[in-house]
From TrEMBL:
Native species: Marinobacter xiaoshiensis
Keywords carried by this UniProt record: Coiled coil, Hydrolase
Keyword Hydrolase found: yes
Lineage: Bacteria, Pseudomonadati, Pseudomonadota, Gammaproteobacteria, Pseudomonadales
NCBIfam families per record: PRK09256.1 (NF006718)
Protein name from the UniProt record: Alternative ribosome rescue aminoacyl-tRNA hydrolase ArfB
Catalytic EC class: hydrolase
Gene name of this polypeptide: arfB
Listed EC numbers: 3.1.1.29
MF-aspect GO terms: peptidyl-tRNA hydrolase activity
Region (Disordered) location: 105-137
Family: Belongs to the prokaryotic/mitochondrial release factor family.
Coiled coil (UniProt feature): 77-104
Domain Prokaryotic-type class I peptide chain release factors: 21-37
Length: 137
């Protein structure tokens, strides 16, 4: 059971976890032990609320296929258990980030005094630079 919020949870049967062999260096151990994890989560066929599904499907993330299957590969740890926990945590973060409502940005303008100060500083800087010319003898 993966708890996303107080009201939303993902059942274990909805998440498919398969063991695979890890890539990279590690000697003979890497060729014998399947310690990496492939996590697959089918968004359209899950029991998530419609709002969650819409937001996830709208994401432009390379981990989400066109069919709406989230695929996460975890192989950063040496044990299967830690890689499983890592994959589940990354799935949880992805879903929570997709559902997070962005704060509405309101356009602001600088005040009249701020505009005036800016122009005054520019003219002062221009006068200072004008004094840096060649000296007439």
């Amino acid at each position: 059971m993966l708890k996303l919020s107080n009201a939303v949870e993902i059942a274990e049967w909805e998440i498919e976890i398969t063991q695979i062999r890890s890539q990279g260096p590690g000697g003979q151990n890497v060729n014998k032990v399947a310690s990496a994890v492939h996590l697959r989560f089918d968004v359209p066929n899950s029991a998530l609320p419609p709002f969650y599904k819409e937001r996830l499907m709208a994401l432009q993330d390379q981990r989400i296929s066109k069919e709406g299957v989230i695929i996460i590969k975890a192989q950063s740890f040496r044990t299967l258990e830690l890689n499983k926990e890592d994959a589940l945590e990354r799935l949880k973060e992805l879903i929570q980030e997709a559902v997070k409502v962005q704060k509405v940005r309101r356009a602001t303008r600088p005040s009249k005094s701020a505009q005036r100060k800016r122009v005054d500083k520019k003219t002062q800087k221009g006068k200072t630079k004008a004094l840096r010319g060649k000296v007439q003898v």
